[in-house]
Structure formats: C-alpha cells, structure tokens
Amino acid sequence: MHLARFPRVRLFPTPTPLEKLENLSRTLGGPEIWIKRDDCTVVATGGNKVRKLEWLIGEARAQGATHIVTQGAVQSNHVRQTAAVARRFGMTCTALLEHRVETNDRDYLNSGNVLLDKLFGCKIEYRASGLDMNAEAEAKGAALRAEGEKVYVIPGGGSNPVGALGYVSCAQELVQQADEMGLRIDRMVTASGSAGTHAGLLVGLQGCNTGIPVLGIGVRLPKDRQEANVHRLAEATASYVGLAGGIPRSAVEANCDYVGPGYGQPTEGMREAVELLAQEEGILLDPVYSGKAMAGMIDLIRKGTIGKNERVVFLHTGGAVGLFGYTGFFESAPAT
Ligand SMILES: *Cc1c(COP(=O)(O)O)cnc(C)c1O
Fold first, then answer.
1. Is 286 in the pocket of ligand 1 (CB under 6 A)?
2. Does the Cβ of 289 fall within 6 Å of ligand 1?
3. Quick check: 11 pLDDT over 90?
4. Distance, CA 156 to ligand 1 centroid (Å)?
5. Does the pTM exceed 0.70?
6. Distance CA 93, CA 122 (A)
7. Which residue's C-alpha comes closest to atom 8 of ligand 1?
8. Mapping DSSP to helix (H, G, I), strand (E, B) and coil, where does residue 218 land?
9. Is 211 helix (H, G, I), strand (E, B) or coil?
10. Best residue among 36, 49, 82 to mutate for probing ligand 1, ranked by most atoms within 8 Å of CB
11. Ligand 1 pocket residue status of 194, Cβ below 6 Å
C-alpha cells in the first residue's frame, strides 16, 4: 500500500513509543503485555483521533475548506482533538455534541473535554440523544455552505476510509518498530468504537501480510452490529487503498461483553483497570474507551482466553482528559 498518494498533514513525531508493561505483566502472571502509546500523539494532550486527522485535515486542505464540522458525545475526545487541529490550520470548528449519556453531572457536562473544546474556540451546538448524528453534521454543513462557508464535514470519530488511513499507517509503523526491536507480536487489543481504529489496523496489518489478529473491545454496540460496522469500514478502506482481496469477515473480532450499562457509563471493571494502570505503570487510561478495553483484556487474561505465553500489544488510544468528567465516580466507593 502506498499511502503517500493521499494528502496528509504531519501532526506528531513517529513512531509513538512501544513499551513493555513489566509490572502489569508480572501482576497478572503473564502474558507479556506491551503498550503502543498513541496517547502520545502530542496535539491537545493526544489520542487516536490525531492520527486520523492527519489524513482528514490533509483532504480538507486539499479541497480548500476553512470550516470543519464534526460531532460526538458531550465528552468526545474526537471533538477535542479536531477542534485543536482545526485551529492549528487556521480553520473554524463547529461541533455538535450529543447528550448520549443521560446525566446532570456538572463535571461531565462542563469539565474534561468540554472545557478544552471551549479553550480551542470550538463552536458548540447540543443535540438530544438518539438522533442520526452524522446526518445532523451533514445538515449543519449544508446550512453553513448556504451561508458561503467552505465546509469539510468529518463523521463521528473521524471514521471513514480517509480517517482510517491513520490506523493503516499506524499498523505499518508498529510492524516496522517491532521488527527493529526483534519483537514477535501474537495479538493486538484495542478499544473499538466508531470503528476507524479497528478497521484501519486490520487493513494495515493485512497489507503488511502479518497475520497478527486484532481483538476489538466494544464500548457501545452489541457484538453483531459492532463487527458488521468494523467489517464494512475495513472493506471500504481496503478498497480505498487498493488492497486486493479485502478483509475477510472472519478476521473481524469484537468482544462487547465489557460495555456495562451503556456507552460512557462507568463500570467497576473500568475502575479497576484505570487504577491498576495508574498505580502499576504510571499510565492514565480513560473511562469510556481505553479503561473498558483494558478491563476486557484483563478479564480475558484471567479467564485464559488470552494465553499466558502470548505477547500482546494493547493500543493506548488516549482520552485521559475524560477522567475529569468522571470525578464523582472515582471519588465514590466501589459498588460491591
Ligand atoms: C474514539 C476513541 C476510541 C475508539 O476509536 P474508534 O476509531 O472510534 O473505534 C478509543 N479510545 C479513545 C480514547 C477514543 O477517543
């Protein structure tokens, strides 16, 4: 795959670190756990959306856009990263924030990502939960175009074939990095939400002919719908980059047993995972994605589904800023 055919802006130094989690691996009694630090993508405290935005903003600039419209949940990491990158290129950012999580919590509604969105000068509009948010963003984009704005609409999570290039390229980067370190990788684990990260990794790892399986831990939808979304986007991305043969449906694996009561709703497993990584490794996960993904990986290790002799790479997708939207939960005593 030859990604230089597509427009891109460069936003952070690569490769992001690939680190061994010595203490966590020891505490869990194996497997050997490594972490790919995509929380270290620099812009606006980093996260996986910065990788996607290299390609999305690259295309927006190539089209002459000066106004970015996107959408997400109230505590969207994607919106925070998009708002910051837009400013970096002198663009306006309008974001539609969906009240996807039902709460009146002051921190959830004002702190964390929302606070940073406002610092980045993002124009925020709120929407009730349950709408087709990508359709809302398209409608907002059309309204702004009618006012003469040069608009580029980015779907939720930056998850389309253009944004997924960020994770096609991450897979290439990781394979080269592991080869240079002499590190055989048996499996990758990532949070799987709007699917661009999961789908991009599948295409990139397939394109490098690695045979490394990717386990996505779902954070919102049931397994059948999540796998269908990931597969659809992986096929579209494979076709966009010209990867012959596409991605077989059997390569798409999502475990959606760790969502808990719903998207963005905290679980005790997430609390344990966030506290464990903080206290064993000095690494901050987030409450909505990487915390639940790590909770899933830890449980699957304890159950033996992930073998003791494997070498696993967990993708850290960032999001720690979201912790400040959940202060009440972390201050409260664990439910027993
Ligand atoms: C958006 C996000 C994800 C999920 O990535 P998708 O490409 O939407 O599946 C995971 N972790 C964090 C912290 C995120 O912000």
1. yes
2. yes
3. yes
4. 10
5. yes
6. 5
7. 194
8. strand
9. coil
10. 49
11. yes
Q: Are strands 18-20 and 253-255 parallel, antiparallel or unpaired?
A: unpaired
Strands (E), the chain: 18-20, 32-37, 67-73, 92-98, 123-127, 151-153, 187-192, 214-218, 253-255, 311-316
Amino acid at 45: T
How remote is the CA of residue 7 from the centroid of ligand 1, in Å?
23
Q: Kindly list the distances between the CA atom of residue 201 and the CA atoms of 167, 217, 232, in Å, as whole numbers in the listed order.
A: 5, 14, 14
Taking the centre of ligand 1 as the mean of its atom positions, its distance from the CA of residue 317, in whole angstroms, is 6
C-alpha 330 – ligand 1 centre gap (Å)? 21
Tokens of 292: 């639940």
Give me the mean pLDDT over the 195-220 stretch.
98
Q: What residues form DSSP beta bridges with 32?
A: 311
Question: pLDDT of 218-247, one tens digit each?
Answer: 999 999 999 999 999 999 999 999 999 999
Q: Is 317 a pocket residue for ligand 1 (Cβ < 6 Å)?
A: yes
pLDDT in tens, 62-116: 999 999 999 999 999 999 999 999 999 999 999 999 999 999 999 999 999 999 9
Gap between the Cα atoms of 208 and 206, Å rounded: 5
